[in-house]
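Aim 2 progress update. The chain analyzed this quarter is reproduced below.
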Amino acid sequence: MRILFLFFSLALLGFSYAPVTWAQCRVPSTSSSLGSASSIALNGSSQTSQASTGFNCDAPTLSLAGTNRVIATFGAGNNASAGLRQLKHTTKSDVMPYTLCVDQSCSKILAVNGSYTWSSQTLLGLLGLFTGPNNTLPLWIKTSTGAVLSAGTYTDVIAISWGYRVCDIGEFDLCLYYFGTPTSNITLTLTITNDCQISNTNNIEFGSAAFPSAFTAINSSLGVRCTKDGAYSVTLTSTHPDDANWRRMTASVSGTNYYLQYQLYRADNSTWTESNSYAGTGSGATQTIPFTARINASQANKPAGSYKDTVSVAVTIN
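Predicted structure tokens:
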């Protein structure tokens, strides 16, 4: 019994001075794409994406002794401000604030220069935490709402300082620890795309009059919300083709179609024909585009009837 006790003492001493090895766990720098989303969608709601820490361990013989522990300290990133991490546009000053989380629901938030510990009493339990891409420890990125951003690629690089101690089974079921203190980087990339929304399209009622020259002009407007700095155009297409630069409303009177000419004019009094689109630059907020609808007072008189036209609004953003 005395000899056995001495043997174990020597065995423990030998293991305690085992050389450091990096064979068990790897911590390469990684790149994670957070996908793409439109600027308007990101402005109104947050997007949560999974990223990889890059930390991965092999699955050697399990040890039931000892505690496996991985500690990571997450830096501020390249674009942090006021304690917030930010993805930055590659060519502009626009930034998208985001939160770094341990879980998908972001109940565990990683503060700037904050640390988190993954711990398990068995290596099997530790390996069960490697649910990220390529069997790595996962992270989650949650974007903030309310940002008004240009389209483009947004990036950030986070430095991570690691400390790990993983127990592998040795002789006599003793714990052989593999440990290290490496560093790595995570490069995050988010692509924001152009988008537009149309709002405030109002019907235009000219009312009633006996002659074309008796109708008064009607002022109206439509709303367009497009990505900041995005060049867009608005095309208004009538149901009936232009007639010598006039749009046409139609009425069926006694089985015959009659046309009442009218036109739309922009704020600078230029005609808004189907081939002369309105051009603008998005601000990220809704922009009001005023216009005037005017009936051609010089056209011939028309039979009494209810004249109508339907105008389709199409917005194109580059």
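The radius of gyration is 34 Å. The chain has two domains: 14-193, 196-317. These observations will guide the mutagenesis experiments scheduled for the next reporting period.
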